[in-house]
Amino acid sequence: MEEKVSGSYRMPAEWEEHDATWISWPANLTDWPGKFTPIPWVFAEMAKRITQREKLHIIVQSKEHEAKARRVLQRVGVDLSVVTFFRFPTNRGWTRDSGPVFTQRLTQQDVAVMRFRFNGWAKYPDWKKDDATPERAAKALRTPIIHVLHDRKPVVLEGGSIDVNGKGTILTTEECLLHPTIQIRNPGFGRSDWESVFKQYLGVSNVLWLNKGISGDDTHGHVDDLCRFVNETTVVLCSEENPNDDNYIPLQENRELIEGMQLENGSKVSVVPLPMPSPLFFDGQRLPASYANFYIANAAVLVPTFNDANDRKALGILSELITDRPVIGIHAVDLVWGLGTIHCLTQQQPA
Question: How far is CA 63 from CA 19, 87, 257, in A?
């Protein structure tokens, strides 16, 4: 079903109640070249935590692919009665960016899919199957789908480039959405264009524009590796203590920016520093290892960990800020070789 947008939808915050979480079961060996074998077991650990208090929707490629997923999930004790498999062809597994972006209607609380387009982060050629995922999901769920347009043109947006507090404020970065020459998703788009799109389709009145994302991020500045809301008034912002690290200056600049910003009601943003793990490299490539790439499920906050001295510190900070569900570390040293971790792989479907 296609529906016209009326401006009466909002994107709920991630900590609000979910009906389900969407993931795409790993299939593309080139996402984790040379390290694919442990990846399904990391997904299974995530699935076990998620299914404790919500449904899990898993995208698979085929009957055979589904059977593989079922075997792994059964071995770790996942309750398959709350798991639904959807056989959609995909290119990659990064559901946050190519999957459906769900919103709620303000009056009736029903759910719709905001149909943003996906173009492989304006970098990779294999994206056309992924781009069809939101429509396939909406059709399977019999959920209304709203095509996001600006000046009558479809709008490209990845879910990892934004984060909301559910009250009218959104976080994003200029590096990702406004850079004039690198990975341009929507040529000619400026701040006012984005702010118009966010207001009309996501119910956002207030945009907090940070500057650059973290080093190693091949999305060119996704905010979900950098700065995240943990409640309506508080964000965690990655902080680097080593002045010789590539992230040191950009993260300092972002801290100065956000400390001068206001929420939708005019109050200041509460900013809590979240440490960075030590730089992580594989095959000479720096990886976007960040504790900010956590996912807030109904039953737990799933946080990537990296066998690092700061793992415990990051988990402790998040536990003090999010007190209504446990904060759980998920080993992500292999996962981050795919250039993303837990938040990049998940997408919430609001209740």
Answer: 25, 8, 49
Does 244 reside within a domain? yes
Residues with catalytic function: 344
Q: Which domain holds residue 277?
A: 9-350
* Per-residue pLDDT tens listing for the chain (351 residues): 444 555 689 999 999 999 999 999 999 999 999 999 999 999 999 999 999 999 999 999 999 999 999 999 999 999 999 999 999 999 999 999 999 999 998 877 689 999 999 999 999 999 999 999 999 999 999 999 999 999 999 999 999 999 999 999 999 999 999 999 999 999 999 999 999 999 999 999 999 999 999 999 999 999 999 999 999 999 999 999 999 999 999 999 999 999 999 999 999 999 999 999 999 999 999 999 999 999 999 999 999 999 999 999 999 999 999 999 999 999 999 999 999 999 999 999 999
Give the domain CATH number at 108.
Answer: 3.75.10.10
How far is residue 303's CA from residue 310's CA, in Å, rounded to a whole number? 12
Number of domains in the chain: 1
Q: Identity (one letter) of the amino acid at 150?
A: H
Residues with Cβ < 8 Å from 250, sequence gap 6 or more?
211, 212, 213, 214, 215
The answer to the question of residue 1 being in a domain is no
Q: Whole-angstrom Cα distance, residue 147 to residue 155? A: 9
The answer to whether residue 281 sits within a structural domain is: yes
Please name the helix (run of DSSP H) or strand (run of DSSP E) that holds residue 297, with its range, or none. Answer: none
316 belongs to a structural domain: yes
Please compute Rg for the chain using Cα positions: 19
Q: pTM for the full model?
A: 0.96
